[in-house]
Amino acid sequence: MKTPPTQTLANKQSPDFKYIYSNAYVIQMTSNEAVIKFGINEDASRPNETILEQVAIVTNLVSIKMLVGILSETIKKFEDDNKITIPYSKDQADDILKKMVISANKPI
């Protein structure tokens, strides 16, 4: 896998840091935290139904909302700078959302 460019922030990496490829994810939320599991679709004809989960992150709700904003702005800037539009299917996103556990009352 080609290594993405290094950020300009003063970050350090853990000795066990690694890159993984992911084209599927599951989001679970409680009243004070969110879990995002990243993985691979095992059946392309059924997106987000048969996922080989590879890694999960747990974070607080403020951080996850900040991440959403940063991702949105980063994608917009990338599209503007490169004069392209990355495809997005609202119907597919809605279908994936229906399968996720997004409830403050269910344990993760």
Could you describe the 3D structure shown?
The protein has 108 residues and is of the alpha+beta class. The chain has one domain (24-102). The protein contains two helices and four strands, in the order E-E-E-H-H-E. A hairpin with a 3-residue loop joins strand 1 and strand 2. The longest helix has 22 residues, at 61-82. The protein is globular, with a radius of gyration of 16 Å. It starts with 23 loop residues before the first strand and ends in a 6-residue tail after the last strand.
Features:
single chain; 108 residues; alpha+beta; 4 strands
Quick structural gist:
The chain has one domain.
Which helices and strands, and how do they pair?
Layout: E1 24-29, E2 33-41, E3 51-60, H1 61-82, H2 90-98, E4 101-102
Parallel strand pairs: 1-4
Antiparallel strand pairs: 1-2, 2-3
User: What's the shape?
Assistant: globular
Q: Let me know the average pLDDT.
A: 84
Main sheet: strand order: 3-2-1-4
Structure classification: alpha+beta
Q: What's the domain count?
A: 1
Model regions low in confidence, pLDDT < 50 over at least 5 residues: none
Distance between the termini: 31 Å
The sequence of SSEs as H and E is: EEEHHE
Q: Radius of gyration in whole Å, from Cα?
A: 16 Å
- Main sheet characteristics: 4 strands, mixed
Tell how many strands the DSSP assignment holds.
Answer: 4
Instruction: Bin the strand percentage.
Output: 25-35%
The total of helices stands at 2
Measured as a percent range, the helix fraction is 25-40%
